[in-house]
Each structure stands twice: as structure tokens, then as C-alpha cells.
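Q: Give me the 3D complex with glutamic acid.
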Amino acid sequence: MISDTTYIGRFAPSPSGPLHFGSLLAALASYLDAKANKGLWLLRMEDLDPAREPPEAAEQILRCLEQFSLHWDSEVLYQSHRLEAYAEALNDLQEQGLIYACDCTRQQIHAMGGVYDNRCRTRNDRVTGGALRVQTQNIQVSFEDRIQGEYSQDLLYQCGDFVLVRKDGLFAYQLAVVVDDAYQQITDIVRGFDLIESSPRQIYLQRCLNYPLPRYAHIPVAVNEEGQKLSKQHFADAINPQQASELLFKALSFLGQTPDPALAGASSTELLSWGIAHWDIQAVPKLANIPHESV
Ligand code: GLU
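A: Here is the predicted complex, encoded as C-alpha cells.
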């Protein structure tokens, strides 16, 4: 089924708590872009960090999406079931001589000015119990974001060699996301602006692993009065499915779409149909963030 379609999008929540308005935006934008392009919208549960995931959260997220009528195609992919695939990709990079161990602490990296200076690349002593990093190159990684325009990063100097396996042995987000986007044949990634600075790392890995390169679109992030991203860490309120209509109306406006005021109070299905029919990605504000109270 998948290979007959030219557009495959996805929503990839981390089940560290219930959905909040910020995650609803990413879900809605990726859904509308997929459906307006007659594509598939897949769901992937990024559940790689059990210590940060209340056991009921993944299920809660799925039920909540359903209550907003955000129905996904195909089966949910759970990253916790994909460890072998990540190990294989890591092995591929290891065979290319790109992986090395590093036991530098957070404090040490802070003292380097926040960007890792790749010092363990050339160490002669054996590092045990460290993280595994991938070597970057002195290259500029650029891509054309469908919303934000050209984005570019000097990989070596702005990012440095980055972690693929954490010190605690867990696979890092950067590796898992790239392996799974390729596995699910994702053609289009629509997500929050906070992840735009991860995209060059992901593109670099896609190139190293010989994967196809997806297109990217980064939507503005909803922030609170203090300018902080609405997130579970900042105790953003869980969205209430009883208010689905109001919240979807608000989310459409936030994304620069202009729902007819007559749609106020309409059902989720009606709002989503309107959203698909009128989706205009060029109308999404080319901004990093927007105070959510302003909508
Ligand atoms: N799991 C990530 C998050 O919830 C999103 C990953 C992505 O869209 O690439 O922030």
C-alpha cells in the first residue's frame, strides 16, 4: 500500500505525558499537509526512554488523537520494538569507521562553550562505559524548509560530533528518528521549529546511511507568557477532548489558516475537512515561535 503513494507523512510523539496544545499543532499540521497532498499520515511512538514515560501515556495519546478525529493510516510503529534496526544502522556506521566512544561529562562540554570539540576522536586510551558519537565533517549542511526557507548549519563548528548511543546505553533520538523515517518511507516531515536545528544532523546521517532525503517543514512553536515552549517540562496543560472543536479552531488559526467564523463550534471532522480543503502551507507564519495566548 505504502509504495503506491507519493506522499508519506508522520506524527512522532514522545509519550512523556499527555498531548498539549504544542503537540496538537504538530499533529494537525502534519495531518493536514499529508491529507491535502492525498498522502498517508503515519504514527510513530518515540518510546525509547522508559524512565521519562508514564506507562499510560502512549495509550492516552492515541485515544486523544482519535477523539480529535485525527485518524492515522496503518499500524502504530513503536520505537521500543525497533532496537535491532538501530543496532544495524549503528553497525553500518561503525564499519565506516565513523563511531567512537566518549566519556566527557556535561560540565566538560559546557566548558567547551556548549559545542563538543571532538576531543575523544583521537584518544589512545580505551574509553569504557561512555556514549557513542558519530564523526561529523567540516561541511555546511543546507536544506530548503517548505515554511522557513533555506536553513543551513556548519556541522563541525555549530554541532560537533554527536551522540547516537547515550551513556546509559539507550539509542539517541537522532539515530532512531533517521532509521525510522527511512523504514516508514517518510517523504515529508512536518514538525515544530524547535527541531529545525536537528535536521542537519539527521540529513548528515541519512547521507552516511544512504537513505533517501525527506522534505522538511518546521512550524512555529507555541510558547507561554515567559517565552518558554509549551512542553511537558513546563507543565503545559493536557488538551481536553471535550474542547476539541475550540482547540482545532484555535490551532488552525495559529497555523495561519483562516477558518470561517461560521465554523466555530463545528465538529472535529468538519473542521478537519475544512482544514484539508483549504490547507495552505505558505500561510503558516515563518516564525520560530508564537505566544499561544495571542491566537
Ligand atoms: N518525538 C519528538 C518529540 O516529541 C518529535 C520527533 C520528530 O518529529 O522528529 O518532540
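A quick observation: Residues 12-14, 46, 177, 191, 195 surround glutamic acid (CB under 6 Å).
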